[in-house]
Structures are given as structure tokens and as C-alpha cells.
Amino acid sequence: MLKNYFKIAIAVLKRRKFFTFISLFGISLTLTILIVLTAFLDVLTSPAYPDVNRSKELFINRIVLKSNKENYTSQSPASFYFVNNFVSKMKTPEKIAIHTGRNTTNAYQNNKKMEVELMHTNVSFWEVYQFEFVEGKAFNAQDLENAAQVAVISADTRSKYFGEGALALGKYVEANNIKYRVIGVVKSAPATMIYANSDIYLPYTLAKSGLKGTSLMGEYMVTLLARSTADLPLIKEEYSQLLKKVPHPEKNQEILLSYPDSYLESFTREIFGKGEGSGKDRFFLMIGIFVFLFMLLPTINLVNINVSRIMERSSEIGVRKAFGASSSTLVGQFIVENMILTILGGILGVLLSLLVIFVLNSSNLISHMNLTINLTVLGYSLLACLVFGLMSGVYPAWRMSKLNVVTALKANN
Amino acid sequence: MIQLKNIEKVYRTDTVETQALNNISLQVEKGEFLSIMGPSGCGKSTLLNLMGLLDAPSKGDVIIDSQQTLQLNDRKLAHFRNSKIGFIFQSYHLINDLQVVDNVELPLLYRNSSAKERRTLALEALEKVGLSNRVKHFPTQLSGGQKQRVAIARAIVGKPEIILADEPTGNLDSAMGNEIMNILLELNRIDGTTIVMVTHDPNMAQRTHRLLRLFDGSQVQ
Ligand SMILES: Nc1ncnc2c1ncn2[C@@H]1O[C@H](COP(=O)(O)OP(=O)(O)O)[C@@H](O)[C@H]1O
Ligand SMILES: [Mg+2]
Fold this sequence. Notes:
heterodimer, A: 2 domains, seven-stranded mixed sheet, three-stranded antiparallel sheet, elongated, B: alpha/beta, Rossmann fold, six-stranded mixed sheet, four-stranded antiparallel sheet, 7 helices, about 35% helix, globular, binds adenosine-5'-diphosphate, binds magnesium ion
């Protein structure tokens, strides 16, 4: 039976080359865009070098201070004081990475100026983030305590600064008019690793400011590594208890809010979060709505094409009914036919996506980003195809099957 | 085999009401070859469609093989048509996208038979109508007479007890028409298939067992 459906489907597709082209084009283009977007989302959110522990991590990127009267809100990353005196005393996390955001400064090599990004970190940073050292190693507690003028640099920075292929260990980089001895070179993190990627990593004790004072606002972020995912809620709980003990006596700062978020939540809270919510649900809802609307266009297009095909195929419908096809059998046939079309479109879409992803990867548009079609994305794409096929096939099929036999047989020939 | 009781058929459109059939009662015996004649628009096709369960009467009963058919649902009707009735149309109604053999197999798709069985039966039916050498052709590559023979093969492939033919020779020249007629006569004589045929040709009608004349929706005696 399926083979026969296939035969007629292919024959119909071949006969209507232009419509076939338009339908396939619409489906495959839509799928390509979806697949490439999800691949982007995937690369942004799934664990990858150097943040391989992401599923066991919580991120504290900002604290919010509000007044009771709702007329004053300020938010920023936390201060060193807050991080050092409170967060680093937490018991539940296995490790606590502390680092600043990236600061862009100028570096000089042979009077040639270049821009580099600096990040100050603690020692645990190198344990939470699993960097691969191509030379040397990370700074240790001793270096940190002594405020040794040492730096870990990325392989990209090494090439930029010392020249392609040169080794850097023991050499000096000069940034902000200070010379740092290179003690380690790491494989560069992709630019999509928003928290962990930088050109030069320094012990936080080398920071020129921000280490003193008791202000809560500063420029430090925290990555909490849990022993297991089961500990994540416990960490959240410990953190919320801890917040209660943090003094914030200033006027108009009566409310202190901060949340350890999963990686995705740390973004959705910025964009969609309101009050206590992380905005993750809203984020997925938005994505759902977007995808639905996006898929609606080719679906409507297909529905139109299919409906216009009804008259053209009325003789066939009449004959099939006369010889024993029930309405439901016909609905089945037309849906299967439509599925075949959409699955063809899906295969084209996947091929096209592979091409686009290959081009994006090899063009190095975003450095060290490696987009892949992973199985989840592929699965969802196929699911999208099925939904396509159903959405665009059901209504026309129903219309076709309701055609009166006698009318259908009269309509043409 | 086929029994019609006090059949009325009224077509209603927005503007007009057409009484296509008016109090028709009729009995076709098993193994009988009945022909129907009458001027264009007198209701011949309508009558045939009612016998074939392609349409329902406005009033009256259609009983086929002792089975009252009015209360059958879509699925049961489809099954009934599939197992009991084969249709032949004036304009062939072959599916141009399918090869001859696939066209012939069509009725078998709607019953439980394997692909192999279907192929065997389809080739057998094509052999019967003398088209064994056109199996892989597409309908557009055939002459009118050949198309109608494919249509006959399709009608007989499921070995139905009844064949309903609506002007099967209407589009053919007399030589080809005669060929088709011979095939139908043979089917009736050898396999005992009950046949009801609408025709305009008195010579053809003469070769059947019985002639029914219609005029303006009513039986003429
Ligand atoms: N679907 C329909 N809607 C309205 N009127 C119809 C329909 N089918 C047939 N008729 C009318 O019913 C009458 C009988 O038609 P038909 O059975 O096709 O005649 P014949 O086959 O004898 O030429 C004609 O007047 C025709 O116009
Ligand atoms: Mg007619």
C-alpha cells in the first residue's frame, strides 16, 4: 500500500514540477533556518570546551539592590567584597570560580599596538573551567597570594602577540603598561563562551582596584560547581540563606536580590526575567511561538497548493472511491503523499543546513565556534517535518475525501 | 441481484430542482445482461450511479445481493462496492500518473491482498482483455479502445459479480466498440457476471438479454 502511495506521490510531484519546486523550496528553506538557529542556540547553551561541567554549574552574574518604594533599582556584577566574604564561604558547592568580566586594554609588542581583553580570576577558575594547556600551566594559590606578575594567555593571543607558531612560555606580555610573565598558554575558548573566554587571564590580586571596600556592587562573577546535579537546589537554597546575612544598610537599598542561575537562565533572566522568575519559561514560549509562526508560512503555502490540486485530481478521487476507497483511506493516502513531499523537503533542508553550517564554520565568522547538527536538533527537525506534513495535509485531504463521487467523476475528462 | 424499489432522485441546486428519476422499480437477475437506452439527460447515468451505490436516492430502496444498502455508512459502502461492483465509464477515468498495470491493480489496493497477488490478478485481467503487451505503458500512450480495455480489466480484476458500464463504447468507433462489446458479452457468458450497460447504440442493446428504455426519468414500456 505504502509503495503505491509512494508511486503516485512521486508521479504527481513530477507532473507538477513548478509547485513541487515551490513547496520543496519553502519547506527546506524554513527548516534550514530553524536548524541553523537551533545549532546556534545549541552551541550557545550546551556544555563545550572549556565549560564542560555546565550541567553541574550555577552562575551568579549580578546582584540587584532595590528600595522598598520601588523607585530605585540598581544592578551590576558583585563586588570582590561580596564574593570573597560571602559567596566563597559557601559549603555546598565543590568549587567556586571567581572572575571579572573582560576589560579591553591596549598591549604593545615592538611598538605595535593591539587590543587585548583581560580577565582576573581566582585559582578555582582553572578547576571549574577545563582549559587545555598547550604550554605551561595555570597560576596557583602561591602565585595568587604573592600577586605574582604572571599571566595565562590564549593560543590566539600568543599568535597575535608573538607571531604564528612561536612559543610563549617565560616570555613577557605587556598590557596596561605592565609586563606579565607568561606561565601558561591555553587553547582559545570560542567567543560563544561568554563567561570564560578572554585573551589574557591574570590572578585577581593583580587587579588595580575593586579589592577593597564593602560596597556590594563590583565587577565579579561567580561560577559555582556542584558535586552533582542533585546538589543544585541545595546550592540555590544555601545562597538564598546567605543573602539574608549580607548587610546592606544604605538607604534605598533595602532589598537585595541575586540568583544562582543555570547557564540558559542566566541569559533569560536578563532578557525576560521579572521579579523572582528566571524567564526561562517565557523564553521557551517565545521560541515556540516564533517557530510556529515561522512554520505557518510554508504550511499555508502547501495547503493552498494542495487545495488547488483537488480539482485536478478529482477524477482519481472519484475512481478510487468507486472502486472501494473509503473517505478515511483517501485521507490517509493524501496525508502520506504530503508527508512524502515534506520529508523530501526535510532531507533537502538538512542537506542545505549542513552546507550553511559548513560555510559558517569555515568562514570563522565567530572565532572557534563549531556549529554542528546534533541528534537532538535533527530529531526536532524531523518532528517539525512531520508536523508540517500533518498541518498542511490534513485539511486538503479532508476536503478531497469529502468530494462526492459522482461530482468528482464528472468534473474533468 | 439488483433490486430497485420506487426510486426517486431529485437534484437540488440553488435555482432549480431536477427530477432526474421518477418512480423507478426494477429487478436485475443474477447473470443477466441488461442494457439501458434513452435520450441524453433522461437519467441513465443517475440510475447507474444509484445501482453502483455512488449516490443515494431521494426516495426508495436499493437492494443488492439481498442486502438493503441505504443505511450503510461510508466505510461499509466502500467495502461493498469494492467486493461486489466493477465500474466502466465512458471517459475511461484511468489515472494518468500510473502505469496500466497499476491502474488495473487499483481495486485490489482496498482489500487484503499481497503485492504479488495483486500483480498476478492484474496481469490475468489484462490478458483477458488482450492487453498483455501494454502492461508498463501509461494511459496517455494508449488509443481510446485500449484505454477502455484497461478500464474493463480494472473493473474485472476483483472478480465482482456486477459490472456497471456507462456508455462504454460512447467514445469509440464502431470497430473498437464492437471489440469492447465482445469482451463484455464473453464476461457475461463465461463468468456469469451480471452486467448493466447504458448505451446509445441499438445494435449493442440488441445483443443483450433485456433492454430498459428511459424517458425523462421514467421507465418506458
Ligand atoms: N449533480 C447534478 N446536479 C444537478 N442536476 C443533475 C446532476 N446530475 C445530473 N443532473 C440532471 O439530471 C438529469 C439526468 O442526468 P443524467 O443521469 O446524467 O442523464 P443521462 O446520463 O441520461 O444523460 C439531467 O437533467 C441532468 O441535468
Ligand atoms: Mg450519462
